[in-house]
């Protein structure tokens, strides 16, 4: 008998794209779940149970095994560094992590970087031999260089629209971001058939990156 | 950090109240009993060791070791596992002991942790080491003992995953001959369970489509004995072939033990390369989010302590079993209560001693100390009065 998979799904931006991908892969996810406010949704036809979580919490649920698998952005995985299997690049919610500053930025004596991703930012600058002060912010990161809280920021860029509107420029790209399918260490073994089957179904419908983006990988 | 409040203790350590201790003892006694039935004798080693000996040789990463200075300024560590202290004993006190040597242990070990709930700084491991047996028989005996220990602990629904570090090494050497750096990058990805990164790395290297398909196929090599046959076809590298043949032989021995139903072969499971040298395994229980046991062959560790012999071992993560697994615990025994007063004290104690000889649990209370209301029969098997009626 096949076992129910507990899936930690990220609420918000990524959810609809992920649910759509599941549907393309032939997994019956009703569309009315998309706008529901329920936190736990049973999907017996799909053999799944969705746990709707804040995206940054998805790897925590999966690491502790309260969810078997989860869908989460690479940005969160890099920042949280959790002990989970990263099984598939789903190719959705494609964007990038970048260093951003005002166009006239010059390295100062005391460099400050504001970000929602303090671990990612610290590691990036350390690897480049730069000692910077990292300030953690929780939103509207673009404000920091504009009002003088920091001279650079590290943040996710999707279209670059917000940056342009606020007169900021992308200086360097850290890495590309897409959503990933992750699995708990024990579930990956105890529910190996269900998880492998889901991977195979999803792999058939995953869109490869557009030609202009392929060279950035690696 | 502000000064701790009176009730606080360091993150990652815990108090064990009586009902938890009885569950812990149940696991410990049953598992050690099972190990002793397989001829594994218990060993106790010190909690404190030198950093330069056991600390450096252990598989625990440096930042996870608890280090301290003694009064002479020598760096000490709290033991982070039992395998390394046992290796030290093998190279010293047991140096002349004829092989094979079978040892068992139950001990607390220490790991310095990130401050977060669910990660423990002090926890119990119950395990065994088989020293001096090189054959698949030895590997299979240790797996069989691990299964028998999990059963003795009362874990109902579990699986063991079995892999071999030599298979991947051989496979990579064949695909990327002499390119140690590239091989390391791929191993790192697998060790971090990052399959996406593994595939990305593969496409970054100049490999033939066929080789890439083979290496990607590695991620699917999980299942029963037929996986061994598939794996033999994938690689013609001698090391990879030898590793798989070894696993096949281990599997045959497991079948003779009649326990192969608990085991699945998983060639993506590779363990810590700097430590394990052959087969590796992990145990999983359905109810728990992280493994409940792990082990493998580590043939190079003992040489660091001056005795170059092979060894295989495993440890149960006893605390995880304690916290997460429903065990068939016996109903706790209720004591007999004897209430007495001055004039009949001697009779009361004599009666208590008689009952204790019969194996009963007896509590004696001076009647004047006890509020009659609290001594209800519900807490006791029986209440006996050595009190003169007024």
Short description:
Chain A is built from nine helices and eleven strands. By secondary structure, chain A is α/β, with parallel strands linked by helices. In chain A, strand 7 (112-115), helix 4 and strand 8 (133-136) form a beta-alpha-beta unit.
What structural keywords apply?
heterodimer; A: 218 residues; alpha/beta; D-Maltodextrin-Binding Protein, domain 2; 2 domains; 5-stranded mixed sheet; 11 strands; 28% strand; B: 390 residues; BirA Bifunctional Protein, domain 2; Rossmann fold; 3 domains; 9-stranded mixed sheet; 3-stranded antiparallel sheet; 12 helices; 15 strands; 20% strand; elongated
Descriptive notes:
The complex is a heterodimer of chains A (218) and B (390). Chain A is α/β, with parallel strands linked by helices. Chain A folds into two domains: 5-94 and 178-214, Periplasmic binding protein-like II (D-Maltodextrin-Binding Protein, domain 2, 3-Layer(aba) Sandwich); 95-176, Periplasmic binding protein-like II (D-Maltodextrin-Binding Protein, domain 2, 3-Layer(aba) Sandwich), CATH 3.40.190.10. Chain A contains nine helices and eleven strands. Chain A has a six-stranded mixed sheet with strand order 2-3-1-4-11-5, with helices on both faces. In chain A, a hairpin with a 4-residue loop joins strand 2 (40-43) and strand 3. The model of chain A is unreliable at 212-218 (pLDDT under 50). Chain B is α/β, with parallel strands linked by helices. Chain B folds into three domains: 12-156 and 286-332, Bira Bifunctional Protein, Domain 2 (BirA Bifunctional Protein, domain 2); 158-262, no CATH class; 336-386, Rossmann fold (3-Layer(aba) Sandwich). Chain B has twelve helices and 15 strands. Chain B has a nine-stranded mixed sheet with strand order 1-5-6-12-11-10-7-9-8. A three-stranded antiparallel sheet of chain B has the order 2-4-3. In chain B, strands 14-13-15 form a three-stranded parallel sheet, covered by helices on one side. The chains are: A alpha/beta (218), B alpha/beta (390). Chain A binds chain B through residues 63-66, 83-89, 180, 184-187, 189-190, 192, 196, 217-218, and chain B through 118, 159, 161, 193-197, 199-201, 203-204, 220, 222, 264, 266, 282, 284-286, 288-291.
